[in-house]
Amino acid sequence: MADAALRDKVLSGAAWNEFCDALKQVGALVQDPRAPVDPLDRTEGYRFLMRLVRYGFESFLEYSDPLHPVLHRGSHETIKIIHENPDNLYLGARVDGRHTYRLFGRLGTARWMSFNIHAGAFGAGGRGTAHALDARELTLGGDRWFELFLGGERRGPNWLPLPPDAGSLIVRQTFADRASERASELAIERLDARENPAPIAPEQVGRALAATPALMRALAEMALSWSGDLQPAVNRFAEVMPAAAAIFRDPDIQFHVAYFELGPDDALVVEARPPKCDYWMFVLSNHWLETLDYTRHRITLNNHSAVLEPDGTVKVVVAARDPGHPNWLDSAGHARGTIGVRWVGKGVENVLPSARVVPIPDSGTHRPQQ
Predict the structure, then answer these.
(1) CA 193 to chain centre
(2) What is the pLDDT of residues 293-350, one digit of tens each?
(3) Dihedral of CA 134/140/146/150: which sign?
(4) pLDDT of residue 81 exceeding 70
(5) In a 3-state reduction of DSSP, which class is residue 249?
(6) Which residues lie below 8 Å from residue 162, measured CB to CB, with a gap of 6+?
(7) What distance in Å separates the CA atoms of residue 73 and residue 187, rounded to the nearest whole number?
């Protein structure tokens, strides 16, 4: 739509009315036949959409300017985007392949950290992850200071190209032990910036009003289809991932999911031999692929917090109440949902865990040695 027409739609209120109508249509997905009818699942479906409204406006309006980029947290405790990792500090910034940028600051001590250039944006379309860099490949100065150049001609020891369709920079900082690991101090600037930011324009609001419901629909559809594709193999891990999610992965992360359905006295026992890698973790999510409330329930374990079996394997027990096992994950009132596993590192072996349902008293009450 031409800017003049979009401006008129915003100022007349037509764009707002269309946005409200689009929200009603997206809201119908919570009542979709693929969605559970359980009151908790349905309530979380509406909350998921409410969170996505905020996520959409932050992405498409508040932090949408690649001419004046700002690093911001897109996914966190109250905005959860399709199997996000609670151990991660996610930072993102809009970029444009026609410009050059400098990311700079002091590198922290997170267990693992990567920089991704996305062609497009997750949930909004595009080619996916175009370039990735492990933070350990950075050349550091004194006090762990560094600068990473994005786009333009190669410069300095730390540089990532920006393809013409570059849309965003994503920084993942993964903490195995938040008590002892320190986050990086980061900022971003556009190197060829000359102008000051302009006041907000009607066209910007119009584009955000149109893009936000489209993003909400795409992510809700992804959650419904991904969960639906996993359900035929209920309580087992399956090699299932929508293409729209797979293309935005970091190449050094292997991720697998199982859909679980458990009765009040059931436990899901998950077992695996963790491969040699930089970091691994297990996490519970709901039907909408939002991680469960990790601020009040233990729904994650990683290579720092989990207790291994004497033979080096790991056993994780998912249940509605504590079965007496040190690696219990609390389903937090959910009769259904997903459990995901990540193995992270270059060339990491791709291990698919086993899973089985047992009565809670038989889920293993022994406490293996650390």
Answers:
(1) 30
(2) 999 999 999 999 999 999 999 999 999 999 999 999 999 999 999 999 999 999 999 9
(3) negative
(4) yes
(5) coil
(6) 95, 96, 97, 99, 100, 101, 117, 150, 151, 152
(7) 13
Q: How high is the pLDDT of residue 181?
A: 98
Per DSSP, what are the bridge partners of residue 89?
173
**pLDDT, tens digit, for every residue of 242-252?**
999 999 999 99
CB 102 within 8 A of CB 149: yes
Which token pair is 200?
């907000």
Q: Count how many residues are written for the chain.
A: 370
For the chain, list the strands marked E by DSSP: 88-94, 101-106, 112-121, 125-134, 145-150, 159-160, 166-174, 185-190, 237-238, 253-261, 266-272, 279-285, 300-302, 314-319, 328-330, 336-344, 354-359
Cα–Cα distance measured from residue 83 to residue 339, given in angstroms and rounded to the nearest whole number: 9
Query: What is the residue-averaged pLDDT of the chain?
Result: 95
- Cα–Cα distance, 37 to 74 (Å, whole number): 29
**Integer Cα distance of 364 and 304 in angstroms:** 21
Q: Tell me the sheet residues that pair with 308.
A: 314
Residue ranges and CATH numbers for the domains of the chain are: 3-190 (no CATH), 234-362 (2.60.120.600)
